[in-house]
Amino acid sequence: MSSQPHAPSDDALAHSERLRALIHAQIDEAGGAIPFWKFMELALYAPGLGYYSAGAAKFGAAGDFVTAPELGPLFAECIAEAFAPVLREIGADAQFFEIGGGSGAFAGDALAHLAALDATPARYAILEPSADLRERQRAHLQQRLPADLFARVDWVDGPMPGDWQGVLFANEVVDALPTPRFVIGEGEVFEEYVTRDGDGFGRTVHPADALLGSAVRHVERQRGGPLPDGYRSELLPQLPYWVQAVAGGLTRGAMLFVDYGYARREFYRDDRDAGTLRAFHRHQVTGDVFALPGLQDLTASVDFTALAEAGTHAGFEFAGYCNQTSLLLGNRLEQRLAAHEALATDEAGRYTLRQQAKRLTLPGEMGEAFQAIGFAKNVEFDHAFLIGDMSHRL
After folding, report:
1. Cα–Cα distance for residue pair 392/373, rounded to 1 Å
2. Keywords for this entry (predicted)?
3. pLDDT tens digits for 233-248?
4. What would the pLDDT profile of 116-132 be if each residue is shown by its tens digit?
C-alpha cells in the first residue's frame, strides 16, 4: 500500500507553491532567516494561503485529522455538563466564549445540551480567524440549532470587549500557537531560524533573546538540571500574555483548555531531545514540517505546567488538571452514552456510539494523550475535576 494514499492535486500543489514563494520573500526581506515561529505563523495563518486561513477541508475523514467534537456529540455534551453549573451560577448575563470553532460541531452540540440543562448562555461567541471556517460554522449551526439558539451565536474578531462574565473554552488551540524553537549549544540557548534552501527551507540558529533564554533557564531549574547540548524543543514564553489577552475582562467565570501535551518535567525529558513539533497531512504524522506549506497542519504539544502558570498569573484560581478520560467520566460520559444508546434505532447506531466513547477515552486513543486544565474566578469550578486529578504532576 502506498504511504501517500492521497497525493495533493495540481491545484493544491500550486497553492502550496504560492505560500512557499511568500515565505521565501519574507526570508529574503529579513536578511536571509526568520524565526521558526514566524515560519509556523505564515504556514498556518497567512491570509488566504495558510493552512487554517485557506479553504481546504481540515476536519474529519476527508481532512487531515479528527478532533474530539467531530466524532459525535458525547465530548461536547460532557463539556456542557462541566460548564452548566458555572453558567447557572452567573445567571442571565453569562456568555460562552469558544476559541477556534473547528467545523462548528462543538458549538452545535454544546449549545443544544446547555439548553436541555437550563444553562443556555445569553451569547455564544466564537473567535475564528478563518473566514472560510466561519462560513462553514455558520452553515452547520443554522442547520443544527433551532432559530432561538442560533440567534445567540456570534463571531468575534478578538477577545471579548470590556468586562464580561461566563466561560471560555479552547480545544486543540494552544498546540497551534506559533511557537519558538530553541537549541542548546555549549550550554548556551539559541533560537531556531528558517532559511531558504534551494526550492525549500533549511534551519539555522541565532542567539536567543532575553525572553526565550530566561524561559529556557526557568525550565532547567524546574527539571533539576541543565538540558544537554544539542537538545532541541519548543517553548512559548508568550503564553502568559496570550492567556491574559484571550481572557480579556473576564471578571467572573471559568476557563477550560483541552489539548495534547505533558506536564513540564515530562515534556522536557532528556530523551525527548528533538521536541514535539510535527505535521499532519491526510491523517499521517510526519516530522517534515517544511513539506507542502499550507497543505499540512503544524503542531507542538502543550506544556501544561506553563499553562497552569499562565492561568494563575492572569489572576485566576487553578481549578484542576486531569486527562481527557477523567474529565469526560467525571462529567457524566456514561450517562450521556446511555441516553444516546436509548435513542438509537438499531445496533449499528449503538455500536457507533460505543466506538465514539472508546476513541475519546482509551489510553491508546485520545484518553491519556489529551489533557484538560481549568481555572476559575469568583465561581466554583472544582466539580469538573473530581476524577483523576493529576495536579501533583505539574
Report:
1. 13
2. Methyltransferase, Transferase
3. 999 999 999 999 999 9
4. 999 999 999 999 988 88
